[in-house]
Amino acid sequence: MKAVVAATLAASLALAWPYASEAAGKKVDPQEAARIHERLLVLDTHLDTPANFARPGWSILDDHSHERDLSQVDLPRMRKGGLDGGFWVIYTGQGERTPEGNRRARDHGLKRLVEIREMVAAHPQHFELALSADDAVRIAAAGKRVVFISMENASPLASDPTLLTAYHALGLRMLGITHIGNNDFGDSANSAPEWNGLSPAGKALVAEANRLGIVLDASHASDLVFDQLLELSRAPIVLSHTSSDAVYEHPRNIDDERIRRLAAKGGVIHVNAYPGYLIPREESPERKRAMDELEARFGDYEKLPPEQVAAYLRERDAIDARYPLAQATFEDYMRHLLHILEVAGPEHVGIGADWDGGGGVQGLEDVSALPRITQALLEAGYSEQDLANIWGGNILRVLRQAEQVAAQMAEEATGG
After folding, report:
1. What does the pLDDT read at residue 8?
2. Which class would CATH give 25-63+71-281+328-413?
3. Which of 53, 161, 209, 304 is deepest in the core (most CB within 10 A)?
4. What are the angstrom distances between the C-alpha of 59 and each of 51, 73, 208, 262, 305?
5. How many other C-beta atoms are found inside a 10 Å radius of the C-beta of residue 163?
6. Rounded-to-integer distance, Cα 177 and Cα 116, Å
7. 69-81: per-residue pLDDT in tens?
8. Helix, strand, coil percent content, the chain, rounded in steps of 5
9. Which segment of the chain is annotated as a signal peptide (predicted)?
10. pLDDT tens digits, residue range 351-386?
11. Tens digits of per-residue pLDDT, 99-122?
12. What is the pLDDT of residues 160-187, one digit of tens each?
């Protein structure tokens, strides 16, 4: 199987190139790049794919198409792209911060957690839940796909922060504080400050995540939340899907000085492929109005049957043709990745492309194209060991450090 996958990767690279980064100084044989990619433990830290698990007629075992059904990750394409797994996200949009809104967020988060676990339970020959860094290595070595669970936006915990203990027992190993909009735990990068960083409840959540061994994620959070997470957390923190402010200034991106401080504290930034965070993309009022009308008419795409998904995509394509947006490319993505590597070093960088959450660019449309990143990094002069760190080693190191902090805190609590 390994040889077959490597041959497929090599063929893809040979056809899909040429790419030459600004830092590139050599050419790498596509077959050699494919062999290296297949040897690596390849993890992505932000897979929004669980949003598809409850879609009518959708299966993780089928070979889908992003153009056909808004899907970027499934088992056939994971195999083709050499993706061993990663962090599968419990995403909750920020709703009203009322008792009713908090209960809805609570219920949504628990439902999504169950859906992830049900997917794993339904396909034990292909997927396995990972509870530790060592689990990930063992699962991938057995030829199965690694399923860590993460949470994007802590709002499911707003009604009862002690639920974090139950989430951890059921597999949660990464926690993002906010999404687009402030919540009860802290400020978002996309909103005016409310707490000037973390709220008192947010600071308590940091200590509880440390106690449990859950990695803290500052993506989507404000700069002050990032600063306070870095200061308060006893374990290194991560940015699970964030790009460079120096390459394209955007509230969701991060500046070089903070990247350096993240690295100095042992953390890792995983580079996002969301087009709107890579390049300027000015949306006209006419396009926004047309898209709003389309979304209002079709509703939640997670609940659409396949024939309605096709109709939705036809209408969206027509809007794209009438009111085009600038398209980010693979070169744009590599510009962010190479800059962040130069600032942080390969021991503190990873990949979190925001698959099935809006990520993907021309030339990197879904996970089947991941070997292109390996090819580009090799041609930019990075070694196989560097790539091993970037693709999985760095996040597993942080997870091990979080596990160690939890063990130390347990010892302290018992007077050991």
Report:
1. 52
2. alpha beta
3. 209
4. 12, 11, 35, 38, 13
5. 17
6. 20
7. 889 999 999 999 9
8. 50, 15, 35
9. 1-23
10. 999 999 999 999 999 999 999 999 999 999 999 999
11. 999 999 999 999 999 999 999 999
12. 999 999 999 999 999 999 999 999 999 9
- Measure the CA–CA gap between 244 and 256, rounded to whole angstroms: 8
What is the rounded average pLDDT of the residues 207-224?
98
Average pLDDT on 275-299 reads 93
Residue 412 host element (H or E) = helix 394-413
SS3 100: helix
Cα separation values, 15 from 19, 33, 260, 332, 363, Å:
11, 13, 37, 20, 12
**CA Rg, the chain, in Å?**
20
Dist CA 115 CA 106 (whole Å): 14
3-class secondary-structure state, position 369? helix
pLDDT digit string (tens) for 258-277? 999 999 999 999 999 999 99
Distance (Å, whole) CA 185 – CA 195: 8
Q: How far apart are CA 114 and CA 294, in angstroms?
A: 30
Of 289, 415, 297, 391, the closest CA to residue 44 belongs to 391
- Helix or strand holding residue 90 (H, E): strand 85-91
Q: E-strand spans in 191-289?
A: 215-217, 238-239, 268-271
Cis peptide before 18 (omega within 30 of 0): yes
What single string gives the DSSP state of each residue in 155-169?
Answer: GGGTT-TTHHHHHHH
Q: What are phi and psi of 184, to 5 degrees?
A: -70, -10
